[in-house]
Write a structure and sequence with these properties.
About 20% of the residues lie in helices and about 15% in strands. It is an alpha/beta fold. β10 and β11 form a beta hairpin.
């Protein structure tokens, strides 16, 4: 099992190894020999996917990606809040170091001039591009998505995202509302489109322009759904009839849950359709029929998201870039769907901190496709004959070869709470370094620590075990070893590009 946050720190380590490999290559190699990178960051996506064993969810395109990828079974975000998690992911620093636990500070000014993953690629000859929600917008990314440091061209944001929280949901009364549940007829919404559709279209345009570029690219695509409101094409509801939707297996608030461990999900309570339920604060339970509707809409959003990922990956195939592009897919954090009486994020339960994490590396996690073959053909979730991809065989503690594999399912890293890393020009090696973590006294799965201030940073006076609430049990945080981050140039001031180096944009 990976430690909380360790899975996402791995994202930086593995992507950083790409540049490290390029840097150690023979001098005669050209920039065109470097692998491109497509990073897909999803908002509020828990591992409710077919490739993670969920039998209900229709996610054929992400499952297909996973079948060609290295899949992490126990990846956790540092904190179940968008801005701290994304800054932690993209800088490789824990919130203890970035000092960002909310949305109200910019790490370069507030805590340290830490480099980011895209900045590192940019400084090593890559064209770096951002589409959609990659950094959290606003103060936490300096109202600029960390431009110009991280990106070669101005980040793209879909024009229709400004309608996400407006009254565009038609209720049973025929009027428009700002609801939590918001299946829509896309033709009737402002601009006749949705943000994730626009992001996919822009990302495909950028891929098309970069196909002929002499420079390798790093393209980050951030998708909004399944973030609330659940505003998605209404046809996706048909995939999840209400009679097939069950409640969470543990829908009651644990009797001995400490108040500090509970999140009263105020962001959901502010929605008009939830306000109409007249729920008591903080522990009032949502009626069972409405719980099913929330779960239905979340699952429908996941399938809608899957179609966007499918179109993007299919374009990668069509442009003959699948053989030269690493694809990484993850989420900023999870989302509670009624477990422990919790909804949304902002808590420390596994359902809000655990995320999907997969890496496709051409020729390593899967054989290179033959000429004319498609590795990522688009799969329609409405196709009744499509089958979910089997989760595959779990990896061993030591994985010494991320190389060509012919197995049917994704290679999985499922064991070992802390993993060290080493990099050579020929292999990426993962080794188990600490013993298994224990389960809480009530049987709930525990991992070594919690998001905000939970894990000791790699510097400073450390070593004291933390006793933290986890449902009705207690977990103790093991002291992690210091994990170096190859992407961060410590204390270095980001260099602005010279005029002669300016990239006009694809």
């Amino acid at each position: 099992m990976l430690p909380p946050g360790g899975g996402l720190l791995w994202l930086g380590l593995v992507l950083g190894s790409v540049c490290a490999s390029v840097g150690s290559a023979a001098p005669g190699n050209s920039a065109t020999d470097a692998l491109n990178v497509l990073l897909i960051i999803v908002d509020d996506l828990r591992p409710s996917l077919g490739c993670y064993g969920d039998k209900l969810i229709r996610s054929p395109n992400m499952d297909q990606l996973a079948s060609h990828s290295l899949l992490f079974q126990n990846a956790f975000a540092q904190q179940a809040v968008c801005a701290p998690s994304r800054v932690s992911l993209l800088t490789g620093r824990r919130p203890d170091t970035t000092r960002l636990y909310d949305f109200n500070s910019y790490w370069r000014a507030h805590s340290g001039n830490f480099s980011t993953i895209p900045q590192y690629f940019k400084e090593n000859g890559y064209v770096t591009m951002s589409v959609g929600k990659v950094f959290h917008p606003g103060v936490s990314s300096n109202h600029s998505d960390d431009s110009p440091y991280s990106w070669s061209v101005p980040p793209y944001h879909p024009s229709s995202e400004k309608y996400e929280n407006t009254k565009t949901c038609r209720g049973p009364d025929g009027e428009l509302h700002a609801n939590l549940l918001c299946p829509v007829d896309v033709a009737d919404v402002p601009e006749g489109t949705l943000p994730d559709k626009q992001s996919t279209e822009q990302a495909i345009r950028l891929l098309g322009k970069m196909k002929t570029s002499a420079s390798p690219f790093f393209l980050a695509v951030g998708y909004h759904k399944p973030h609330i409101p659940f505003r998605y094409p209404k046809e996706f509801q048909k995939l999840y009839p209400l009679e097939n939707i069950t409640l969470a297996p543990d829908p009651q608030v644990p009797a001995s849950l400490p108040p500090v461990a509970y999140n009263p999900w105020m962001d959901i309570r502010r929605r008009e359709d939830v306000q109409a339920l007249n729920l008591s604060v903080p522990y009032g339970l949502i009626p069972a029929d409405f719980q099913r509707k929330i779960r239905q809409s979340y699952f429908a959003c996941v399938s809608y998201l899957d179609t966007q990922v499918g179109h993007l990956l299919s374009a990668l195939d069509d442009l003959q870039l699948a053989s030269s592009t690493i694809v990484a897919l993850t989420s900023d954090h999870g989302w509670a769907l009624g477990e422990h009486g919790e909804w949304a994020k902002y808590s420390n339960f596994d359902v809000t901190t655990r995320v999907p994490l997969v890496f496709y590396v051409p020729g390593r996690t899967a054989p290179l496709p033959a000429a004319g073959d498609k590795l990522f053909p688009y799969l329609d979730p409405f196709d009744s004959i499509s089958e979910s991809v089997e989760p595959g065989v779990k990896g061993k503690f030591t994985l010494t070869s991320v190389s060509q594999s012919s197995q049917a399912g994704p290679l999985q890293v499922a064991s070992g709470p802390w993993l060290s890393w080493s990099l050579s020009s020929k292999k990426l090696q993962f080794e188990k370094t600490l013993p298994e973590t224990s389960a809480g006294q009530d049987g709930h799965r525990c991992h070594g620590g919690r998001p905000v201030g939970s894990l000791p940073a790699s510097r400073g006076p450390r070593g004291t075990a933390l006793s933290l609430p986890h449902a009705r049990g207690t977990c103790r945080a093991a002291r992690p070893s210091s994990l170096p981050h190859p992407l961060v140039s410590r204390g270095a001031v980001p260099r602005r590009p010279e005029p002669s180096e300016a990239f006009s944009g694809p």
